[in-house]
């Protein structure tokens, strides 16, 4: 029975040599000549994009970025011995005999609050009132909490002994100066950012978030909320892809839909490159008469269009454009095809540019809840619902395989992978699954 564990199997292949990569698997025999495998096309993309240059980033903006170099603690934490409770700093030997029946009376010679810059010292037979986080005065080696005293101000009665070191947080007890506290590649989350701030680091060296421009094409597309004619539709792709870009950790610039006019598309694309590390387009790359992306970019000679042995998402393209040599990934126009293509090709590219590994979403094994039929020669990505039950992980295929059915896409939280040489998966089989809402 599957437990829902991740797997770095053959689906993880085809990527440049280096961290987060796996060997390329053999080409399935059932794929017809002229089609690229998923691994072929992904390898081309990953070789065509590289990690962005790292530089010092403001700590407040570093969430989700991987450290470019290990962070070495520049100081101890705590920076000084301090009290872990409100109470009285004392010498342990002075209160060794204290109990409720025979309290020890000590004069209170001062008070230390957290943030107090004035050094303090106590002598034998005295006490200092102290607050949580305040530095331990010189000469004291223990703290008696208020609960074990009468809370006196001028003089205090101590009702319990305190061993040396009691309720004292020693200097360097948490972090020692010179320790590697965060290794290279650590993805910064709230906890790591909190540690860096506590260690006094206002900036960290990390790769920036890639700036990704998303362009959808089609004369029939309209902005959501505007009037629809009988032959027009809302532009859902650019919003979906923009959200996916942001979810991947990149910065997105969404461009409104561009008409099926080569000159218009080329002008818009050229104008956007000033703010783009990567361009992603949807639509206009199949075999129609008005496939503006393919027509325009083919003329440049720097973008290659191929058919990939996958369903949905057969037509794909990748290359670099104009003098800037900005990488561009072109996706199909049907909503499900665009989303699956993003997951399989664009997401790994963004993660590679950020320096995040693994590039590809790890697979999870799950038990199939109903049968799936597939044609040989293509890798099929079937929408499904993944869940973990008391029996283990299972995934249920959703009805409707059409690449335009965005309603079922919204219900799915997983993609079930049917291999190129498989024609059927049966209920009860253990299958490879990409769980879409699982962070990695």
From TrEMBL:
Bias-annotated ranges (Low complexity): 16-28
UniProt entry tagged with the keyword Magnesium: yes
Region (Disordered): 1-28
GO cellular component: cytosol
Biochemical pathway: Cofactor biosynthesis; molybdopterin biosynthesis
Cofactor(s), names only, from the UniProt record: Mg(2+)
GO MF term set: metal ion binding; molybdopterin molybdotransferase activity
Name this protein carries in UniProt: Molybdopterin molybdenumtransferase
Top-level taxon of the source organism: Bacteria
Enzyme Commission code: 2.10.1.1
Species in which this protein is naturally found: Aeromicrobium yanjiei
Similarity annotation: Belongs to the MoeA family.
Annotated function: Catalyzes the insertion of molybdate into adenylated molybdopterin with the concomitant release of AMP.
Catalytic activity: adenylyl-molybdopterin + molybdate = Mo-molybdopterin + AMP + H(+)
């Amino acid at each position: 029975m599957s437990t829902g564990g991740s797997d770095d199997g053959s689906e993880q292949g085809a990527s440049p040599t280096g961290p987060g990569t796996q060997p390329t698997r053999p080409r399935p025999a059932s794929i017809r000549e002229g089609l690229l495998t998923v691994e072929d096309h992904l390898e081309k993309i990953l070789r065509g994009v590289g990690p962005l240059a790292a530089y010092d980033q403001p700590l407040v903006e570093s969430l989700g970025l991987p450290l470019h170099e290990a962070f070495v603690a520049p100081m101890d934490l705590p920076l000084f011995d301090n009290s872990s409770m409100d109470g009285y700093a004392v010498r342990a030997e002075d209160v060794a005999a204290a109990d409720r029946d025979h309290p020890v009376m000590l004069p209170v010679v001062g008070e230390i609050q957290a943030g107090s810059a004035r050094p303090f010292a106590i002598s034998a037979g005295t006490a200092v009132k102290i607050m949580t986080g305040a530095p331990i005065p010189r000469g004291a080696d223990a703290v008696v909490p208020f609960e074990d005293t009468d809370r006196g101000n001028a003089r205090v009665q101590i009702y319990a002994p305190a061993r040396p070191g009691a309720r004292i947080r020693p200097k360097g007890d948490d972090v020692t100066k010179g320790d590697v506290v965060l290794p290279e590649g650590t993805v910064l989350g709230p906890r790591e950012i909190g540690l860096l701030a506590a260690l006094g680091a206002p900036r960290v060296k990390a790769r920036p978030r890639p700036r990704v421009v998303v362009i959808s094409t089609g004369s029939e597309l309209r902005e959501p909320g505007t009037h629809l004619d009988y032959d027009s539709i809302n532009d859902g792709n650019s919003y979906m892809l923009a959200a996916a870009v942001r979810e991947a950790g990149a910065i997105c610039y969404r461009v409104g839909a561009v008409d099926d006019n080569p000159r218009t598309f080329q002008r818009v694309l050229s104008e956007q490159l000033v703010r783009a590390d990567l361009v992603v387009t949807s639509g206009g790359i199949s075999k129609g008469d008005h496939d503006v992306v393919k027509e325009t970019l083919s003329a440049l000679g720097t973008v290659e269009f191929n058919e990939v042995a996958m369903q949905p998402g057969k037509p794909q393209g990748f290359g670099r454009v104009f003098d800037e040599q900005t990488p561009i990934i072109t996706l199909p126009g049907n909503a499900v095809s665009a989303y699956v293509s993003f997951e399989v090709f664009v997401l790994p590219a963004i993660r590679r540019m950020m320096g995040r590994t693994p590039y590809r979403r790890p697979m999870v094994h799950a038990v199939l809840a109903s049968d799936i039929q597939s044609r040989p020669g293509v890798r099929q990505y079937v929408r499904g619902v993944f869940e973990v039950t008391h029996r283990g992980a299972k995934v249920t295929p959703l009805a409707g395989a059409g690449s335009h059915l965005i309603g079922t896409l919204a219900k799915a939280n997983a993609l079930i992978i049917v291999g190129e040489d498989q024609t059927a998966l049966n209920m009860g089989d253990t299958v490879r699954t990409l769980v879409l809402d699982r962070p990695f």
